[in-house]
Amino acid sequence: MGHNMGAQMERINPTGIPRSELVWALGQTRLVSQARARDACLLCRGPGVNEAGLCRICYSLLSDEELVLARRWLAGVGP
Q: How many other C-beta atoms lie within 10 A of the C-beta of residue 75?
């Protein structure tokens, strides 16, 4: 009772996005903004995220392609 069983809820993945989708995710303003607002890393969901929505550890493990995109966020340019 009182619950709308037909309503859709946003699914939050407790383990973050798959690494294979990070390049795509770094191009999505909404996803990066949500990670920053929640202070939860896009990949590991850990706290202490930077402007790209990544924690210090995950940021240090980025590939060259991922790093180019993340640096755009750090520079204030975005996707």
A: 10
